[in-house]
Write a structure and sequence with these properties.
This protein is mainly beta. The protein has seven helices and 66 strands.
């Protein structure tokens, strides 16, 4: 009897089983691409069993660590299907109901929470439709989860470890090892195997050396945790380790052998990730993981936790001439360089001075980062210009308060339009003279003048600004423009209340906030600024003055945060020596970027924190776009709002000179609408066949910008995706486009098209809702256990009926079981589970129809045998001679395919007589007077092997022996002992 079972399984889970069973996609023996193909360096390959043999290669290019998926159908040349972001770890792929799921995560240590996936649909492998790999989940762009930092359990270990215990994670495809296998690896070999997995082997040597030291320090920290079984895994929850090594990375490891970063005498938790953004993130309880400004990463989205070393940032600094120690000192402040015994020669560098927010001040802080500073007696620093001017900067004697050396206050006669090089030399206690590296600084005292003019009336939002009369010509002038984004000091609040509000003649008799010497620390907060467009970089100009003395201490801390205060967008600390002169207002820039994902506009808050070490006054904060190289004509995009606009422009140079405000006033007559996109749905109801949507673009001011058009779709489940869209029949004011519905996911889809013209006027079509269903439902019957080797089920089995339709959904579902019943099910009934617990042969027939009218049928035949055959053996009760007629028979509901017979004697035990025979009777010849026993078992068609029957025992009689009348007897010894039944 077949009864309806409880509905226990989830639809998605059974759909996954369906696809796994259907495709059998992953083959354990990797295939190889053709020799000379672009996919020779495969890290994972597999074969897909479809109508045409398809081989796929998933690889990560070693010089960029960029994942790529290549396919080859049959004997066709391989072609690139998908390319991911550089600096990405690739986990072992897996198949889902939608296609191939590729696990990904950015490079870095302790990076597992930031993993995401890309799904490559089956259409890519079958060629049945457009190949559109889809990013399924993204790492969070918000603050990282709480970082758990276990304390070190040892404070005495100062010698680098010799070995490290590495456990293999099965998600790691770049090692040939068993899951959970623990390898004891020489420590420096471990660093050499991690480095090319975490940073591209083709990157600059300085970046590779900085990364090697960070890898070594992080691993050393983990070893000191004294975990019982292993120290690290080889995957992204620690650091990824592979088997490949390269000469460039081996050289970086050898050049820094044993070197590490220490804080308070122990290795630090050297966090790093692919892209830490500007500024980097930090944790408040670790001074060496505090946020630092990273201007080379301005506008780059974070990829990873954002703590410590930024790998992309390290590459950019290395390309600007920084060495490995300058990179490490920048990302890990307050650390010291550890040099392993027996090294006694001091090693280190001058810290760099050439950050993007350099301000022309009274002096410059000179700092050094040293290993074995105890061996140093004297450090001398000199400055040299490109023109050949030379000047001693300072001489510092031991003991040193690392990293501080002193302050250089150059005379006004020492300036240059080119970078000035600072060179340091170390004299050791042993009398050696060693170079300590170089640093660069800009110092050009020539005044900057710029003349700007613009149009006064325009219909174009991209307005030209004419630049004339700027000097000096070699100063790399940059220009920033803002839409009168100004916050006066009087508009903000001070918490806690401290300082005074005064009218300052130096600020044009404007009311300013003044924080005096001895006042308690306080922070000025601006009101939220809400009208800054997203997707741009900005520079906030804080206008401050300070009273004497102008010393090297930090007087104020400037930053930009989101309105809720949770995300730091920009920061800088201002020292007293960064003021050109006392009681004179100067502009101090803080750069920040607003990403599109943070919303259409603001709000952001600007803050000034004063410490009471000197008298500080704040007049205002002015915001412009991030300064761009000065060109003529210089173009700037107006906010798309008709009417009068007042712009404020400021020019600056790398030396820190800033021009006064340049106001520009103009009027925009914006046409309505400047750009129209028409997209009309073909009809209402379900679209059941491939068709192409038609659309039209009309502009009022300028031709369409072909690079900006895209279509966006949103599903009811919240999935939103954007893809480029090509225009055709383009003229100066019109264009057309086509959009096949096969490019969209099935189901209810809200679709719109957006773009802009060449003068940045934007437009979007009216969103339309389409109902797409191009494929019939997927139906499957899934057993709770597999059949045996001959295809029979030999135990009660539960069957689960699943029906999935990605488009309109399942409407009608009929299940018939022969013999048995037919039942109509509702879509809400599936997955539906029912048991089969009686023997017999059954035919399951399923018919499914979706709401759009597509149908699919499925037929499956099932044979069930729940019990093995039972066999009995028969012999005559009395025999008159040594020949016994033995018969046997089995009882079973299904055909018997064979028997085994055994005979027993006291001396030989049970011995095989007949094997797999189809006979049911046989004559046995034995020795007269012997005691023998017989037993049998049967095999049925369902694969069962029955149990041995109960033995049947008898004693053969003594008879006269007539050789010419009898057959030879089987020799069985006499025995009184009988077999155990």
């Amino acid at each position: 009897m077949i009864a309806r079972g409880c509905r226990l399984a989830l639809l998605v889970g059974f759909t996954l089983v369906l696809w796994l069973a259907t495709w059998r996609a992953l083959a354990q023996s990797p295939a190889s691409p053709p020799i000379g193909s672009p996919v020779d360096q495969s890290i994972f390959s597999f074969t897909v069993n479809v109508d045409t043999p398809v081989t796929a290669w998933l690889r990560r290019e070693p010089r960029s660590l960029q994942p790529q998926l290549w396919l080859q159908r049959g004997t066709d040349p391989p072609f690139l299907v998908w390319r991911g972001e550089p600096l990405t770890h690739v986990g072992r792929p897996q198949w889902t109901a939608r296609g191939l799921l590729i696990p990904l995560s950015p490079t870095g240590n302790a990076i597992t929470p930031y993993a995401y996936t890309v799904t490559v649909p089956f259409a890519c492998f079958t060629g049945s439709g457009p190949c559109r790999p889809e990013r399924v989940a993204s790492p969070s762009e918000t603050l990282p989860p709480v970082l758990r930092i276990p304390p070190l359990r040892s404070s005495t270990v100062i010698t680098p470890p010799r070995y490290i215990r590495v456990q293999h994670d099965p998600r790691n495809p770049c090692r040939q090892a068993k899951a959970g296998q623990i390898d004891v690896i020489p420590f420096e070999e471990y660093v050499a195997r991690v480095l090319p997995a975490e940073m591209p082997a083709g990157w600059p040597p300085a970046a590779l050396q900085a990364q090697a030291i960070a890898i070594r320090t992080y691993a050393w920290y983990q070893i000191l945790q004294n975990k019982p079984d292993f120290d690290v895994t080889d995957w992204t929850d620690f650091q990824v380790m592979c088997d490949d090594r390269y000469p460039s990375t081996d050289q970086a490891v050898a050049a820094t052998a044993g070197q590490a970063l220490f804080f308070n005498g122990l290795p630090i938790l050297a966090m790093y990730s692919a892209q830490n953004g500007h500024p980097t993130r930090g944790v408040s309880w670790l001074p060496y993981l505090t946020p630092v400004p990273d201007p080379v990463s301005l506008g780059e989205p974070r990829r990873g936790h954002g703590l410590g070393l930024s790998q992309w940032g390290a590459k950019r600094w290395a390309e600007r001439g920084w060495n490995a120690y300058q990179i490490l000192a920048h990302y890990y402040p307050d650390t010291e360089l550890y040099l392993p015994p027996p090294i006694t020669v001091p090693t280190g560098t001058l810290l760099p001075l050439e950050l993007e927010d350099m301000t022309l001040g009274r002096g410059y802080p000179i700092r050094a980062w040293l290993g074995r500073a105890d061996r140093v007696r004297l450090i001398t620093v000199t400055a040299t210009t490109r023109e050949g001017l030379w000047q001693p900067v300072l001489t510092a004697t031991a003991p040193f308060t690392s990293p501080w050396l002193g302050v250089w206050i150059p005379p006004d006669t020492f300036s240059s339009p080119y970078p000035i090089t600072l060179t340091a030399v170390v004299r050791t206690r042993d009398g050696l003279t060693l170079p300590l590296g170089t640093a660069r600084v800009w110092r050009d005292l020539r005044p900057l003048t710029v003349t700007l003019t613009s149009v006064t009336l325009t219909v174009k939002p991209r307005v030209p600004i004419t630049v004339t009369g700027f000097s000096p010509p070699q100063s790399n002038v940059r220009l920033g423009v803002g839409a009168q984004w100004v916050v006066r000091a009087t508009e903000g609040t001070v918490l806690p209340a401290a300082g005074v509000w005064i009218t300052d003649t130096a600020a044009g008799s404007t009311l300013v906030w003044q924080h005096r010497v001895g006042d308690p620390p306080a922070t000025w907060h601006s009101p939220p600024v809400t009208d800054l467009p997203r997707g741009r970089s900005y520079r906030a100009w804080f206008r401050l003055r300070a009273a004497a003395p102008l010393d090297p201490n930090v007087l104020v801390y400037l930053d930009v945060v989101t309105a809720d205060g949770t995300t730091l967008l920009g920061m800088r600390a201002v020292r007293g020596i960064e003021f050109r002169s006392a009681n004179t207002y100067q502009e101090y820039p803080v750069d920040f970027h607003l990403f599109e994902w943070q919303g259409p506009t603001g709000p952001v808050v600007f803050r000034v924190r004063a410490y009471g070490r000197a008298e500080i006054a704040l007049e205002r904060v002015l915001i412009t776009e991030y300064p761009r190289p000065l060109t003529s004509p210089f173009q700037w995009d107006l906010p798309q709002r008709p009417g009068r606009h007042t712009l404020i422009a400021k020019a600056t140079t790398p030396t820190g000179f800033v021009t006064p405000d340049h106001p520009l006033t103009l009027t925009l007559r914006m046409p309505r609408p400047p750009l129209t996109i028409t997209l009309t749905p073909p009809y209402t109801g379900w679209i059941t066949s491939p068709l192409t949507l038609q659309g039209r673009v009309t502009t009022a001011v300028a031709a369409p910008d072909l690079t900006t058009f895209a279509y966006r779709y949103t599903t009811p489940h919240g999935l939103t995706d954007v893809h480029p869209l090509s225009l055709t029949d383009v003229t100066s004011r019109t264009a057309r486009f086509t959009l096949p519905v096969t490019w969209l996911p099935e189901g209810q889809v809200t679709l719109s098209v957006h773009g802009q013209d060449r003068f940045t006027y934007r437009g979007a079509s009216r969103p339309i809702t389409l109902s797409l269903d191009l494929t019939p439902p997927q139906v499957e019957l899934i057993p709770s256990r597999p059949p045996n080797a001959v295809g029979w089920y030999t135990a009660a089995v539960s069957w689960t009926l699943t029906a999935v339709d990605a488009g309109s959904g399942v409407d009608v579902l009929t299940l018939c079981i022969t013999p048995g019943f037919c039942d109509d099910l509702k879509a809400s009934d599936v997955p539906w589970t029912f048991p089969v617990d009686e023997e017999g042969r059954y035919t399951f027939t399923v018919h499914a129809q979706d709401v759009a009218g597509h149908t699919r049928s499925l037929t499956r035949t099932v044979a069930v045998d729940l019990a093995p055959p039972v066999t009995e053996v028969y012999v005559p009760s009395r025999v008159r001679r040594a020949a016994v007629k033995v018969q046997w028979q089995a009882q079973d509901t299904h055909p018997i395919v064979g028997y085994d017979l055994q005979v027993w004697s006291a001396t030989t035990g049970w011995q095989s007589w007949l094997t797999r025979t189809q006979r049911t009777r046989m004559t046995f010849w034995g020795e007269p007077g012997a005691t023998v026993a017989f037993r049998a078992r049967a095999y049925d068609i369902a694969g069962w092997t029955g149990a041995w029957s109960s033995p049947v025992t008898l004693t053969l009689p003594y008879v006269a022996f007539f050789p010419h009348l009898s057959r030879p007897a089987v020799s069985l010894p006499r025995a009184a002992e009988r077999p155990n039944p």
